[in-house]
UniProtKB/TrEMBL annotation:
The gene is hutH. InterPro entries: Aromatic_Lyase (IPR001106), Fumarase/histidase_N (IPR024083), HutH (IPR005921), L-Aspartase-like (IPR008948), Phe/His_NH3-lyase_AS (IPR022313). The modification 2,3-didehydroalanine (Ser) is found at residue 142. It comes from Virgibacillus salarius. There is a cross-link at residues 141-143 (5-imidazolinone (Ala-Gly)). GO terms for molecular function: histidine ammonia-lyase activity. It holds the Pfam family Lyase_aromatic. The keyword DNA-binding does not apply. This is Histidine ammonia-lyase. Belongs to the PAL/histidase family. Keywords: Cytoplasm, Histidine metabolism, Lyase. One of its GO terms (cellular component) is cytoplasm.
Length: 506
């Protein structure tokens, strides 16, 4: 059970809640802040004060005054009108993350919602009632309005949720089955539910979790390639990396050396060649730079996961109500674009290692790792597939955050497109996982030529585990199946967030 307070949610906790399906509880102190904030909103309505989104319309309609008798309708119409997301739904774990993140933001006590709304949101998480939320339709400023509106629909008994089979069903029937009562939104509550960056952050958190594991996996796969190509281990000597000064680079070199410990397949300078190509020699530098980006992304995601992103924000018991722009997703938009580039580079360098594994002009292995070169093509077209995925990544890596289209009659004249960046990062991660799967398949085959009995102990364990899923290439077969099987093994699963080496080496 993880307690949410609005101030201390971590990516590790989000892993436990969203992937392990751990339940949550609410901090009593934070709930008291929620009550105090709600009293301030009630006073604003009672005193007929002019406050954006409470007694006025929204966006360009901020100058339209709303009568007290119409406050409930204002919030209802807001949710219905803004629920215009399109496309495929987000994965259930992303939908769950969105609820947790929005709940955590409301618990900070600056949004003015009633405790009953907070409690219902917590119940939805604990009962595993996950809204069906279309992926597309957010500009990433004024909050992730469209996606969060679909989340809010469920809370008022409308919209769709996933059932146990992953099918979209009416939310009202599921709420009734679970004996949960939909709420009637009061002043500001609809706005409080949709003003925020929780869609881009939810996708971003899942991206980070998967990218972190992928970065660790890329190291043992690269080490396996080193054995298949009898690479030179001297390039990983700690002295080389310490004099440059990047701790992430030093750490990658240290982990690479640990993976290769005891190997009789790796070589030293001058034994087989004087130096390796960059895709082998520069693994710590390139992979280390990806880890630098991951560290940056993690920091920004954890800040945003505990941020008040509402508008307006209520301070000092309602004495200070400020209409600002914390819903603007630019910090996460830039972080996601950074992540896109960083993960795309893991695929870029991996594909170059694949080329070295299959090209007979670059190694001493059977041409294209084929059992019968000429008659059988072996891994030739797997390299094509990797090259295709890498090229697609380059297009997806174009930054979303540099784009902006004005909305709401130019009232909202600069937006972040952060949710687009998050979604594209997810596509790049999926593509990169498959590129690494291709490298893994080729490296598994290569070490059979150089000598399985001479492998490093840790890598021999990997070889044995993956050979249970992907057999030796004794003749051509439908390699698409192998690629997807290995990619599935590399994906994040319950209780499996990174390789065992992450725990062994700090």
């Amino acid at each position: 059970m993880i307690e949410l307070s609005g101030d201390s949610l971590t990516i590790d906790q989000l892993k436990r809640i969203c992937i392990e399906q751990e339940q949550i509880t609410i901090s009593k102190t934070s709930m008291e802040k929620v009550r105090e904030s709600r009293l301030a909103v009630d006073n604003i309505v009672a005193n007929k004060e002019i406050v954006y989104g409470i007694t006025t319309g929204f966006g360009k309609f901020s100058d339209v005054m709303i009568e007290a008798k119409d406050v409930e309708d204002l919030q209802l119409y807001l949710i219905r009108s803004h629920a215009c997301g399109v496309g495929n739904p987000f994965e259930e774990k992303v939908s769950r993350a969105m609820m947790v993140l929005r709940l955590n933001a409301l618990l900070k006590g600056f949004s003015g919602v009633r405790p009953v709304l907070v409690e219902l949101l917590a119940d939805l998480v604990n009962e595993r009632i996950h809204p069906v939320i279309p992926e597309q339709g957010s500009l990433g400023a004024s909050g992730d309005l469209a996606p969060l509106a679909h989340l809010a629909l469920v809370m008022i008994g409308e919209g769709k949720v996933f059932n146990e089979k992953g099918e979209a069903v009416d939310a009202a029937s599921v709420l009734s089955k679970k004996q949960l009562q939909p709420i009637v939104l009061q002043a500001k509550e609809g706005l409080a539910l949709i003003n925020g960056t929780q869609a881009m952050v939810a996708v971003g958190v899942m991206n980070y979790i998967e990218a972190e594991k992928l970065a660790y996996d890329s190291e043992w796969i690269a080490a396996l390639t080193m054995e298949g190509l009898q690479g030179i281990i001297d390039a990983f000597h700690p002295a080389v990396h310490e004099v440059r000064g990047y701790p992430q680079q030093v750490a990658v070199a240290k982990r690479m050396t640990a993976w290769l410990e005891g190997s009789q397949l790796i070589t030293h300078q001058g034994e087989k060649r004087v130096q390796d190509a960059y895709s082998l020699r520069c693994i710590p530098q390139v992979h280390g730079a990806t880890w630098q980006a991951l560290d940056y992304v993690k920091e920004k995601l954890e800040i945003e996961a505990n941020a008040a992103t509402d508008n307006p924000l209520i301070f000092d018991g309602g004495k200070l109500v400020i209409s600002g722009g914390n819903f603007h997703g630019q910090p996460i938009a830039i972080a996601m674009d950074f992540l896109k580039i960083a993960i795309a580079e893991l695929a870029n360098i991996s594909e170059r290692r694949v080329e070295r594994l299959v090209n007979p002009q670059l190694n001493d292995l059977p041409a294209f790792l084929s059992a019968q070169p000429g008659l059988q093509s072996g891994a030739m077209i797997m390299q094509y597939a990797a090259a295709s995925l890498v090229s697609e990544n380059k297009t997806l890596a174009h930054p979303a955050s540099v784009d902006s289209i004005p909305s709401s009659a130019n009232q909202e004249d600069h937006v972040s497109m952060g949710t687009i960046g998050s979604r594209h990062a997810r596509l790049i991660i999926n593509n990169t996982r498959r590129v690494l799967a291709i490298e893994c398949i080729c490296a598994l085959q290569a070490v059979e030529s150089t000598g399985i009995d001479k492998m490093a102990g840790k890598l021999k364990e990997k070889w044995e585990a993956y050979r249970k899923v992907v057999p030796t290439i004794s003749e051509d077969r439908i390699f698409s199946t192998d690629i997807e099987e290995v990619a599935s093994l590399l994906n994040v699963k319950k209780g499996d967030y990174a390789t065992d080496l992450q725990l062994d080496i700090t």
